[in-house]
Structure formats: structure tokens, C-alpha cells
Amino acid sequence: MRNLELEGIPVKSLLAGLWNDDHGQDLIEYTLLMAFVALASAALFIGAGGSISGIWSVSNSQLAAASSSVS
Description:
By secondary structure, this protein is mostly helical. It has a domain at 23-70. It has two helices and two strands. A two-stranded antiparallel sheet has the order 1-2. The N and C termini lie far apart (95 Å).
């Protein structure tokens, strides 16, 4: 069996080094956390959109009724 090398470094030791290397791990964890927060926020905004629309329509109808009763 032939030993594979990449720029003079055996591939097996290169892959083992990449597997054990933890540089950038914090960046990935914070990125995943930020993505989760963004998705949760988007879900809340989508869910709140219907409630806000309902509040605006009730307020609009009450203001229209008050305006027509004054006129």
C-alpha cells in the first residue's frame, strides 16, 4: 500500500492534526448560537405579525366608529 502525501506531509497525520485542532471552534459555536437566536426571533416576529395586525384593525374600527359618531 502506498503512503499518500500532500506537500511532503503524510495525509494520515494531516487528517489527524485537523481532527484534533480546535482553532475556530469558538467562532463556529458563536455563529451557531447567533443563527439560532436569529431563527427564534424571526419565528416570534412572524407569530406576532397576526396579533399586531389584529390590534391595528380593532383600533382602526374603533377610531372609525368614534369619528362617525362625532360627525
